[in-house]
């Protein structure tokens, strides 16, 4: 905002810097018809808020050293995986190995961790599988945590500089920064390989740069540089987590705010206002979007190998990855006798699938599911509905309206539906069970008949709308007897269905959930030189759009209950935190909890400020004068700016149906702390301006109380020794649910404690990774083992004496020769075949 020039000092010729008033008067000029506010700041304002005298530089150095002493020590402890390091450490490994994965967050922060690890020589050979897994010696986890901690420490400095840029006096900004340095929640999140520290740093950099921009005259070098840096920081924030988009929205609202006053400023030409608006649009919206695209381009260029996360993506996307097994050179024309795979278009479930296991409900016939991975149990033979099992001498196309049967090639049962409720969605009368029914030699019955209905809108114009063309025709399968449609959705079968996706026959389904297409197609009748087709390679933009659709859908699907989840309404009250790590053998634990002194003070101030503004509006309406002191005006403007940021960042949380956790509050809380810094400033420099010593004492007491809380609860930040008694006494609120039972009765007992630590996980890439919350659900029965060094190990499997039963991932019995072929083709993914219950990462959250 523009201000009236006030007398003050500035750097003189001999280089001595004298402090300027950081809150000059506002300038109101007389116009031909009305008075108007001058929106250009005085030249002295930028100097008053950015050029620091020697004493302040010393204070900044002290603040930096104090912050480093809080944020950087003992990052090597614990020497095992903590909280969501199971995700983001693992993703760093995937980046280093170039294996495609799927995550609900943009790539920048994860790529930065991967870059730090790669520079330290890490080769991605540790997968961060479970909370508590001990790090091998060759995993540079300390350096990765140090990167996070440094960003957290720099965020403290950015908070100080931001408060100075919005008019807070140096000594108040110093106390605010010191309190932020010991805010327990930010200390905790910045000590581990998590996305929160990079995100908060980028948000803080954007806020500081934009506030700095407001202090310069339009079109000055300082304003251009600050606006550009703000745009870069916004792009990096949005590229670390989508929360950064809320920061872009906040900056946009402030730009509209300022533009409104510019339009009323008679000293500014329309042309200059237009140029300012366009420059903000380019720097604060265009530049972040370009950076966002750039980071995704690097993401796709880095993850070039097929990986577990690729099963989320379309086959066209997956076909661009090295090592993929997506069918190529597919026969385009589909006819009777064709051996096909059917892919569902509406979900990430994948392929129509069956295996030799029965439902435990309904008809108890053979299961039909969707399975996201390529497998021979996805293969079906198209038969004539009247001459099932007969091989025709001439090729017959499958055309729109044709009635067919689908024979499962492995088990020789046919796709079937009847009047039984769906296995999981049994309470919905519009879904019927789909099963695989029959046996070798059985000709089938009328409930095996399906009518092909080609979707004319979803299929490209041409012959693909008349007959089924592999990869191109989108069609539905209508059950001939009941007229329901073959359907699938995100509902999963229970353990007896290996948590694969439910398939049913629906009469009232949404159209996109009933669409299918043929991906694999072979037909023995057609000659060898038959024309073949493959997926068209998607463009970067197509991959970008598809990945975002998947990210959004997966994010919306994170709705399962979590023991440490909390609702947004409870966050400002600090009702509970999140358990990050616990080691019963060592009697130590880590728990995310805010600094209650700072936290509740921020919440109380927000409530007080809202009441204050309402009372001032009422007073104004009844004719009472409104305070016009420059400090009071600046206080109101800056606090409204920051609390607008608070509202923009917390507001969307109330609309989300997914799991929510306390750490989701931290971006909004950062804006609350900035607003509270102005509350301390107005109290010390305006309300108590005649009682300076009391003001100093008040700030010192507030810091002392904050530091006491920090030290009292530091064992659950650093994972250090504590006693049961002290732990229980530290619970100011009964709902703080960190486990005091894990601690010993006194500190002497720790000296006599014998710790038997588990051995570090071998630095060998796991063949079948365990399920994590955002990866596709896998069957409960997995094929596991160690990759053999040579083919002799494969021979040993088959030559080992005694009876053997070979099973695939789903528990299906495999032909021994088929099992051997799969092993030899894929370099021995399995050394032995065994059943292994899939573990899930407990206690983790996004």
From TrEMBL:
Localization per Swiss-Prot or TrEMBL: Endoplasmic reticulum membrane
GO CC annotations on file: dolichyl-phosphate-mannose-protein mannosyltransferase Pmt1p-Pmt2p dimer complex; dolichyl-phosphate-mannose-protein mannosyltransferase Pmt1p-Pmt3p dimer complex
Gene designation per UniProt: NCAS0B05860
Catalysed transformations (reactions): a di-trans,poly-cis-dolichyl beta-D-mannosyl phosphate + L-threonyl-[protein] = 3-O-(alpha-D-mannosyl)-L-threonyl-[protein] + a di-trans,poly-cis-dolichyl phosphate + H(+); a di-trans,poly-cis-dolichyl beta-D-mannosyl phosphate + L-seryl-[protein] = 3-O-(alpha-D-mannosyl)-L-seryl-[protein] + a di-trans,poly-cis-dolichyl phosphate + H(+)
Keyword Metal-binding: no
Family label: Belongs to the glycosyltransferase 39 family.
Topology term for the membrane: Multi-pass membrane protein
Annotated source species: Naumovozyma castellii
Principal cellular location given in the protein's record: endoplasmic reticulum
Record-given protein name: Dolichyl-phosphate-mannose--protein mannosyltransferase
EC number: 2.4.1.109
Enzyme class: transferase
Taxonomic lineage from the root: Eukaryota, Fungi, Dikarya, Ascomycota, Saccharomycotina
A biological process from GO: regulation of endoplasmic reticulum unfolded protein response
């Amino acid at each position: 905002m523009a201000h009236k020039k006030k007398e003050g000092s500035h750097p003189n010729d001999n280089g001595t810097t004298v402090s300027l008033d950081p809150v000059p008067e506002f300038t109101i000029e007389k116009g031909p018809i009305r008075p108007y506010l001058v929106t250009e700041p005085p030249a002295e304002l930028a100097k008053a808020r950015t050029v620091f005298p020697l004493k302040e530089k010393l204070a900044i150095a002290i603040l930096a050293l104090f912050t480093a002493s809080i944020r950087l020590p003992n990052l090597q402890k614990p020497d095992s995986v903590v909280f969501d390091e199971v995700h983001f450490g693992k993703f760093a490994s995937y980046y280093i190995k170039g294996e495609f994965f799927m995550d609900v967050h943009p790539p920048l922060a994860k790529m930065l961790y991967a870059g730090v690890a790669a520079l330290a020589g890490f080769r991605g050979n540790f997968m961060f599988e479970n909370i508590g897994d001990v790090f091998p010696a060759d995993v540079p986890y300390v350096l990765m945590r140090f990167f996070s901690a440094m960003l957290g420490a720099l965020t403290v400095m950015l908070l100080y500089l931001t408060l100075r840029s919005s008019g807070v006096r140096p000594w108040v900004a110093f106390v605010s920064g010191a309190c932020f340095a010991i805010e327990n929640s930010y200390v905790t999140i910045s000590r581990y390989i998590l996305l929160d520290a990079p995100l908060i740093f980028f948000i803080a950099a954007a806020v500081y740069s934009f506030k700095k921009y407001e202090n310069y005259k339009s079109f000055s070098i300082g304003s251009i540089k600050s606006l550009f840096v703000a745009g870069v920081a916004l792009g990096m924030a949005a590229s670390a987590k989508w929360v950064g988009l809320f920061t872009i929205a906040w900056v946009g609202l402030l730009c509209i705010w300022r533009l409104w006053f510019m339009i009323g400023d008679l000293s500014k030409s329309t042309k200059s206002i237009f140029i300012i608006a366009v420059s903000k649009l380019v720097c604060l919206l265009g530049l972040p979007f370009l950076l966002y695209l750039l980071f995704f381009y690097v993401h796709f260029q880095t993850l070039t190998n097929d990986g577990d996360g690729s099963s989320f993506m379309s086959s066209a996307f997956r076909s661009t990855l090295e090592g993929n097994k997506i069918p190529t050179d597919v026969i385009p024309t589909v006819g009777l006798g064709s051996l096909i795979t059917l892919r569902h278009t509406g979900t990430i479930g994948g392929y129509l699938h069956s295996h030799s296991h029965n439902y435990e409900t309904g008809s108890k016939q053979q299961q039909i599911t969707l399975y996201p991975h390529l497998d021979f149990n996805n293969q079906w033979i198209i038969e004539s509905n009247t001459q099932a099992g007969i091989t025709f001498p001439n090729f017959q196309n499958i055309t729109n309206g044709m009635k067919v049967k689908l024979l499962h090639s492995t088990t020789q049962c046919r796709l079937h539906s009847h009047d039984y409720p769906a296995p999981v969605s049994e309470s919905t009368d519009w879904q019927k069970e789909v099963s695989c029914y029959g046996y070798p030699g059985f000709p089938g019955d009328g409930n095996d008949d399906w009518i092909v209905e080609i979707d004319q809108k979803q299929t490209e114009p041409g012959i693909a709308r008349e007959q089924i063309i592999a990869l191109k025709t989108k069609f539905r399968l209508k059950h001939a007897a009941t007229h329901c449609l073959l359907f699938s959705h995100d509902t999963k079968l229970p353990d007896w269905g290996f948590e694969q996706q439910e398939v049913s026959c629906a009469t009232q389904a949404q159209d996109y959930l009933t669409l299918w297409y043929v991906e694999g197609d072979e037909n023995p009748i057609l000659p060898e030189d038959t024309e073949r087709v493959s997926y068209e390679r998607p463009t970067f933009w197509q991959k970008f759009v598809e990945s975002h659709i998947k990210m959004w859908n997966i994010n919306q699907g994170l709705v399962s209950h979590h023991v440490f989840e909390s609702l947004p309404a409870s966050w400002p009250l600090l009702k509970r935190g999140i358990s990050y790590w616990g080691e019963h053998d060592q009697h130590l634990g880590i728990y995310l909890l805010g600094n209650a002194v700072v936290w509740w003070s921020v919440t109380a101030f927000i409530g007080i400020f809202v009441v204050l503004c309402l009372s001032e509006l009422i007073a104004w309406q009844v004719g009472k004068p409104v305070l016009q002191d420059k400090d009071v005006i600046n206080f109101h403007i800056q606090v409204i700016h920051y609390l607008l940021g608070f509202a923009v960042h917390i507001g969307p949380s109330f609309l989300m149906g997914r799991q929510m956790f306390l750490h989701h509050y931290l971006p909004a809380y950062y804006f609350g702390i900035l607003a509270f810094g102005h509350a301390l400033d107005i109290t010390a420099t305006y309300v108590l301006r005649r009682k300076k010593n009391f003001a100093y004492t008040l700030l010192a007491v507030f810091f002392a109380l904050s530091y006491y809380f920090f030290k009292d609860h530091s064992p659950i930040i650093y994972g250090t020794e504590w006693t049961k008694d002290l732990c229980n006494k530290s619970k100011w609120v009964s709902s703080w649910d960190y486990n005091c039972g894990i601690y010993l009765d006194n500190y002497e007992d720790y000296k006599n404690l014998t710790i038997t630590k588990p051995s570090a996980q071998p630095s060998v890439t796991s063949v079948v990774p365990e399920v994590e919350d955002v990866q596709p659900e896998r069957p409960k029965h997995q094929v596991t083992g160690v990759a053999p060094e040579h083919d002799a190990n494969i021979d040993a499997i088959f030559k080992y004496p005694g009876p053997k039963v070979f099973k695939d991932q789903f528990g299906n019995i495999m032909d021994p020769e088929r099992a051997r072929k799969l092993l030899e083709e894929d370099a021995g993914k399995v050394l032995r075949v065994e059943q292994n219950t899939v573990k899930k990462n407990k206690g983790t959250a996004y």
